[in-house]
Amino acid sequence: MHRISTNANRHPARKWGFAAIFLAFSIANTVGAAEPPSAAKEDPTRRAAFTKAVGEVRLAMAGRDYPTARKHLKAATDAAQNFEDRKELARLETVADYLDQFFDGVRDCVAGLGSGEELLVKTTRVAIVEASRTELVIKTAGRMRNWRIEHLPTSLIMATSEKSFTADGPSKVLLGTFLTMDRNGDPDYARRLWQEASRAGYRKNVDQLLPELGSKKATEQIDPIKKKLATLAEMQMKARSLGDHRGLALAALAGVQEAMQAKRRDVAVRMAEIAVAAAKKSRSVSLMRQAVAVQRQVAAAR
């Protein structure tokens, strides 16, 4: 596993939450000396395969499906043709390793929480019921909620990590990586964290990662689930007749199923809202019942 580099054992070990992360003096995936451009003509089929694969890597990372991201990395490696391709692959491999380190730390942070302890999540206090390296159960507003660690809402991850956050360069690099790649992250905050890490002596790590801040917009543009939501929102603005609203409701209900299969509950919630509103305007009692039932299913999903 590639570890965050440091300056000659300046910090032999640091703690992210409750897990010690040992730092080695190397960025193992960084491409070294400049490589001269290849004179070989590019294969357009391999170019298309590479572009698709690295896009899929980022989409999988955004959805926290890291095993799938690794599979797409392998496909991208097979399709790479030049120095720039290998440089991008090296960066994505480093990102994958940093995300592994980050969630290993999050698991330790959660496991260190005690029953009855409180967390401040944005402006809401939640009570810890059970906490382990695999699952977190909380009570908020009289309701019990539980998540697998890999499915924790970003707000809970932030609250958990900040409670035991070690504000050193390596931790800022890891947290910044997560906030850059995660679908519900915060690239602006990630940039600030990386700037602070760079000033703390981790410039090489940060310089390698910075291009990913620019890739997030491109990733959003090729996100098919998000595209479908945008299409539904546009249909909603243009719908006028009963038939328009009925068609919108049916399209939104189909989108909900697709979003849930892709584990995109955030998008599914919005699509369900569109389905209910459109069904109501369609004046179809049966469609309204169907839309409300689906909305309840989405709300109950964890």
Layout of helices and strands:
Elements: E1 13-16, E2 19-22, H1 44-62, H2 66-79, H3 83-111, E3 118-121, E4 124-131, E5 135-140, E6 143-148, H4 154-163, H5 169-181, H6 187-209, H7 211-221, H8 224-238, H9 242-261, H10 265-282, H11 285-300
Explained architecture:
Helices cover 62% and strands 11% of the residues. The chain is flat and about 60 Å long. The protein is built from eleven helices and six strands. It has helices at 44-62, 66-79, 83-111, 154-163, 169-181, 187-209, 211-221, 224-238, 242-261, 265-282, 285-300; strands at residues 13-16, 19-22, 118-121, 124-131, 135-140, 143-148. The chain folds into three domains: 13-32 and 43-106; 108-213, no CATH class; 224-300, no CATH class. By secondary structure, the chain is α+β, with helices and mostly antiparallel strands. The strands form two sheets. It has a four-stranded antiparallel sheet, with helices on one face. It has a two-stranded antiparallel sheet with strand order 1-2.
Number of strands: 6
Helix/sheet category: alpha+beta
**How many independent structural domains?**
3
H/I helix tally: 11
* Spans where pLDDT lies below 50 across 5 or more residues: 5-33
Give the terminus-to-terminus CA distance. 31 Å
Query: How many whole angstroms does the radius of gyration measure?
Result: 22 Å
N-to-C series of helices and strands: EEHHHEEEEHHHHHHHH
Globally, the shape reads flat
